[in-house]
Amino acid sequence: MSADKHLQSWQERFEMAEAMQPLLGKLYRNQGVEVVVYGKPLLNASTIEIIKAHRLVRRHVGEKLRLRESFPFVQALSKLAVKQCKVDIGKLAVNYWRDHTDVSEIENYMAKELADAIDHADDVAPRDVVLYGFGRIGRLLARLLIERTGRSNKLRLRAIVLRGGKKGDLEKRASLLRRDSVHGPFNGSVEVDEDNNAIIANGTYIQVIYANSPDEVDYTKYDISDALVVDNTGIWKDEAGLGLHLKSPGASKVLLTAPAKGAIKNIVYGVNEGDITPEDIIVSAASCTTNAITPVLKAVNDKYGIENGHVETIHSYTNDQNLIDNYHTADRRGRSAPLNMVITETGAAKAVAKALPVLAGKLTGNAIRVPTPNVSMAIISMNLNAETSKDELNEYLKDTALQSPLQNQIDYTDSTEIVSSDLVGSRYAGVIDSQATIAEGKRAILYVWYDNEFGYSCQVVGVMQTMLGLTTLSLPA
What we know:
Blueprint: H1 3-31, E1 33-37, E2 40-41, H2 47-55, H3 57-61, H4 67-79, E3 85-88, H5 89-99, H6 106-113, E4 127-132, H7 136-146, E5 155-162, H8 169-178, E6 190-193, E7 198-201, E8 204-210, E9 227-231, H9 239-242, E10 251-256, E11 265-266, E12 282-284, H10 288-303, E13 306-316, E14 342-344, H11 348-355, E15 363-370, E16 376-389, H12 390-403, E17 410-413, E18 430-433, E19 438-450, H13 454-467, E20 473-475
Parallel strand pairs: 1-3, 3-20, 4-5, 4-9, 5-8, 9-10, 10-12, 11-12, 13-15, 17-18
Antiparallel strand pairs: 1-2, 6-7, 7-8, 13-16, 14-15, 16-19, 18-19
Helix pairs in contact: 1-2, 1-4, 4-5, 7-13, 10-11, 10-13
C-alpha cells in the first residue's frame, strides 16, 4: 500500500469514528443503550478509542472489523426502539458479515437479534447513591457514575459525605475531582455552588454534606431517599459500624469498598454477585487484590483444580503509608513509601474463600508495597490437580478473557513490552501477562496486573448495580 493510501485509509477510519460519536451519545442519553465492541465500551469514547476498540477485534476472531463494516449497525441501532440494554455491535457485525455481502438486510437482522430489547419496558426507577468518603476510590467512583449521566441513567450520584469542612474545603474537593496525578484530568466540567454546598459535574448535581458519623445525616432533607450508601472510608468494617449508616433517614443499603469482617458477604463482581439477595442491606466489594485474583483463580480451578497455592502481591503504595519515615501503628508502614519496598500483610488470599468457597484453606498470601503510585501485580503460584503447559494454560486463559462469562473481569496480554504504567485506567479486575506465565506438569505461576484503583472501582460499580437490581440486558447473548 502506498503512503497516500495509508493516509487515506486512516482518514476514512477517523471520519467514520467521528460520525459514530453523536449516535453513540444519543443512544445512551436518550434510550439507555450502551454500545460496546467485543466488550470494549464506547460510551464517551474518543475517535482514537473507537478505532482502537475495532483493532482489538482481531484478537477475538482473527480478522479485522473495519469501521465501515460496523457503522451501518450503529445507524440501524439508532433507528430501533431499543431501551435499557448493552449492545455489542462488534459481535453483531462480525456474525452478519460471515453470511452476507451487502448492507441490505442489516436492519432486519438487527431487529431480529435485538427483539428482546425493542420497546423494552422502562419501568425501573432511578436509584440514589451517596458516596461516604471522597478519597481515591470515592473520586474514581464519582467519575464512573458521572460518565453515565443522562435521562436514562438509573444509578444517580446524589451526594458525598465528608468530615467537618473548613473554609475553602468545597473548592479543594472539586479541584481534586478535576485533576488527578495518576488518572489525569476529569473528562468534562466541574463547578462549585458555594451557596448550596454542592458540586456540579457534567450536569450532575452533587450535594456535599459534612458529618462526623454515619448516623448524623438526614438524607431526606436533600430529597434523597432509599439510597445506597457506598462507604469508602474503611473506618467501619463490621455490621455494627456499617449499620450506623442505616440509622440515617433516606439510607436503605450500604456497600463497603474494603474487605468486611464477620458474616457480611464479600462480593467479587463476575464471580459471586449472584449471592446478593434483595434482603442483603450491608455488602462488601472485597479488596482490589481479591477482585484481581478471584476471577483468575476461578477460571484455573474450573479447568484444572487447585490443590493449594500462594499469592504474592506487588502492590503500589497507598495513603495508609507515610511519605517520610514517621510513626505508624502497623509494622514497617511507617517507613517512607516512595523510597522503600515494604513487606506487609494482605488478607486477600484468605478473602478469596468468601467469594469462592471451594478454595477455602488452600491459599496463603503476602504483600510487598513498592514505590509506584498505582497499578499492582499478583503473582499466583499454584499446585494443580491436572497437568498443563505454558502454551495450553495461556490458550485457555486467552479464551476465558475473550469468550467466557469472566470476559469483563479478565483481560489478557501477550505483549513483551508491557509495564505497570501501561495498565493505568484498565477497567478489568485483572490482566494476565501471558509472557510471564510459568507452567510445567502440575505446577503453574501466573502474573496478573491490576489497576488497584480504577479497575477495582469498575468492579464496585457492578456490585452497586446488582444490589439495586439494575442489571442490564446484554445482546447478543
